[in-house]
Design a protein that fits this description.
The protein contains 14 helices and 16 strands. The protein is α/β, with parallel strands linked by helices. It folds into 3 domains: 109 residues, 3-Layer(aba) Sandwich (Rossmann fold); 186 residues, 3-Layer(aba) Sandwich (Rossmann fold); 84 residues, 2-Layer Sandwich (Alpha-Beta Plaits). The chain binds nicotinamide-adenine-dinucleotide (NAD) and 3-phosphoglyceric acid. Nicotinamide-adenine-dinucleotide binds next to α3 and α6. The site of 3-phosphoglyceric acid has 10 residues, from loops. This is D-3-phosphoglycerate dehydrogenase. It is an enzyme of class 1 (oxidoreductase).
Length: 394
């Protein structure tokens, strides 16, 4: 890279991650024309994407704050950091499961009200504690919706704590299926989970298919006094429906990492200020992984852990490289390779991978190639119907 590549952080990103960017990069939070953006939960939906933008790295899991379709249309890959914050979230889920079950949050808040009661405090504590008799989780049943990086960890650890665990995930990856304890009872109909469990922890992405997944219809199928833990996204739960369920006692407690104006006022709701991934370790892991993914893409065109591009990588051995992001339609690869041979260039290695409606091709070329030949090739590639973006890396 001849000039510095500009990285614009939209949130506070761990120094450990930012420090991985070499001297070829400039970190500038005020940049108006960055090459890449690195962010956490900053809402990019209302933001105009800079024309210079070539890649986005989400230091975290959820990407509902990023306009994915717009990025795909513009040929901008969005990366996230699968699993990098999963342990942090799991620890907070397990903590909250036990703490809410033992009425700790309410008890601790009540103890604060005793400030100023002087020598009466110990006596008031002993008299007041009967309001906060809780339940142990051992022997109870936990339902885990979504058995990905976080859900699988929560399920396995809950078993270790003596719970029975029912899991639901129609799209579980092979990797996660291997990691999940065989003692987790997997169901293929979510209603089976609803009717059996004492606690539910939800670990799915917020996408149109999961919006309001826990709503009146779902609450009506649950046992009375079920506890719901939501460390995924606020929009997964229908706020109006859970407010009613909390009033009626169908839901006994709602523990949410995503409070809003409505949930803050709801009965029996524990509000946590989105702390799931806020551990030093997780912030470092996510920032480092996002920085590595961005640098690999910017320097080699290889794609790892993108949520809108296919994973595609060729070992970078210094050959001049051309990448193309295009529609996933028949004959694209033959059109691309025939353009390469028409300008008398020779292919050393190539890969083509697809994801949904799009595909990504990486081609390594032989020899020293004149700037004018590259120019001619790129012009021809861009003329192919269905081509979104091309890049030359040398
Ligand atoms: N509170 C926090 O700070 C915090 C931190 C990390 C992640 N999150 C949230 O948690 C979510 C899950 O994170 P993860 O790292 O486990 O992601 P992941 O991609 O590893 O797991 C998500 C799982 O959900 C499953 N899934 C998708 N749709 C489903 C459906 N309709 N029903 C059941 N399962 C479904 C997928 O198959 C996958 O196994 C993220 O999308 C994010 O919104 C929150
Ligand atoms: O999806 C995620 O990774 C979490 O919600 C963490 O978000 P944060 O990086 O803003 O803490």
């Amino acid at each position: 890279m001849s000039k510095q590549t500009v990285i614009k952080p939209l949130n506070a990103i761990s120094e450990k991650g930012l420090n991985l960017f070499t001297e070829d990069y400039l970190i500038d939070e005020n940049a108006s024309q960055p090459d890449a953006i690195i962010l956490r939960s900053f809402n990019m939906h209302d933001m105009e994407l800079p024309s210079s933008l070539r890649a986005i790295g989400r230091a975290g899991a959820g990407v509902n704050n990023i306009p994915l379709d717009v990025c795909t249309d513009k040929g901008i890959p969005v990366f996230n950091t699968p699993g990098a914050n999963a342990n942090a979230v799991k620890e907070l889920v397990i903590t909250s499961l036990i703490a809410s079950s033992r009425q700790m949050f309410d008890g601790v808040a009540w103890a604060k009200t005793l400030i100023g009661k002087g020598d009466d405090v110990p006596k008031l504590v002993e008299e007041g504690k009967k309001q906060f008799v809780g339940k142990e989780i051992q022997g109870k049943t936990l339902g885990v919706i979504g058995l990905g990086a976080i859900g699988a960890r929560v399920a396995n650890d809950a078993l270790e704590l003596g719970m029975d665990v029912i899991g639901y995930d129609p799209f579980i990856s092979v990797d996660m299926a291997w990691k999940l304890s065989r003692a987790v009872k997997r169901v293929h109909n979510i209603d089976e989970l609803f009717k059996e469990v004492d606690y539910i922890s939800i670990h799915v992405p917020l996408i149109p298919e999961t919006k309001g997944l826990l709503n009146k219809a779902a609450f009506d199928k649950m046992k009375d006094n079920v506890y719901i833990l939501n460390f995924s996204r606020g929009g997964l739960i229908d706020d109006d429906d859970i407010a009613v369920a909390l009033e009626e006692g169908t839901v006994g407690k709602y523990i949410t990492d995503f409070p809003n104006a409505k949930t803050l006022e709801m009965k029996n709701t524990i509000s946590i200020p989105h702390l799931g991934a806020s551990s030093e370790e997780s912030e470092e892991n996510c920032a480092m992984m996002a920085a590595e993914e961005l640098m690999e893409y910017l320097e080699t065109g290889n794609i790892r852990n993108s949520v809108n591009f296919p994973d595609a990588a060729l070992p970078y051995q210094g050959h001049p490289r051309v990448t193309a992001f295009h529609k996933n339609v028949p004959k694209m690869v033959s059109k691309i390779t025939s353009e390469v041979s028409d300008v008398n260039l020779n292919i050393v290695d190539m890969t083509n991978r697809s994801y949904k409606d799009h595909a990504y091709t990486i081609i390594d070329l032989e020899g020293d190639i004149a700037e004018s030949d590259f120019g001619a090739l790129v012009k021809r590639l861009e003329g192919i119907e269905g081509m979104v973006t091309t890049r030359v890396i040398k």
